[in-house]
Write a structure and sequence with these properties.
- The protein is α/β, with parallel strands linked by helices and 171 residues long.
- It has 2 domains: 121 residues, 3-Layer(aba) Sandwich (Rossmann fold); 38 residues, no CATH class.
- It is 35% helix and 16% strand.
- The chain has 7 helices and 6 strands.
- It has a 6-stranded parallel sheet with strand order 3-2-1-4-5-6.
- Strand 2, helix 5 and strand 3 form a beta-alpha-beta unit.
């Protein structure tokens, strides 16, 4: 069975919606997705570090449309692991675990890898929204489209726009 590595933030959890929500509440600024294209999270939002260190930020993030159903299917056909960086923002460790338990309860604790660097991760396929995580990976790589990566050529990575495309590619 092939090992599939799936990122959380920006792939399963809609953190861009969280950033927009927090910025609207904090500063009264409403940004549409088009205004974010080509900008990193830090370039797009004024108080990124404050928001990600606010209790509830990760716990209350919306689920990406279609992800639960497709992940349920992927879990039947792959050796599936959720791998998410969680050490940089200490509050995120517990909140990410709780979020995954709430929305993806069909996954067991052994499938959840909350780590620092993803450079130690190996497998056959990786689905992530950041080049920094995909570029070092030796297997097949799927780049999940997010505003911060939209202006970049995917290069050796296969771009997927949403969970319907993930389903077409992997199932």
């Amino acid at each position: 069975m092939k090992r599939l590595i799936v990122d959380m933030d920006g792939v399963l959890a809609d953190v861009y919606s969280q950033f927009r929500k927090y910025e609207q509440l904090d500063l009264g600024i409403t940004q549409d997705e088009a205004s974010l294209i080509g900008k990193t999270e830090r370039e797009a939002f004024q108080h990124v570090r404050t928001y990600v260190n606010t209790p509830g930020f990760f716990l209350e993030a919306p689920v990406m449309p279609g992800s639960i159903e497709v992940m349920r299917q992927l879990n039947q056909q792959y050796d599936l692991y959720i791998v998410s960086s969680a050490m940089e923002f200490p509050l995120s460790l517990y909140e990410k675990y709780q979020w995954l338990q709430q929305h993806f309860s069909f996954l067991i604790w052994e499938q959840l890898v909350l780590c620092g660097s993803k450079k130690i991760v190996y497998g056959d396929i990786m689905l992530d929204d950041h080049f920094k995580n995909l570029d070092h990976f030796d297997g097949k790589t799927l780049l999940f489209s997010q505003p911060h990566n939209m202006k970049r050529d995917p290069g050796k990575h296969q771009r997927v726009a949403n969970w319907q495309e993930v389903q077409l590619v992997l199932l």
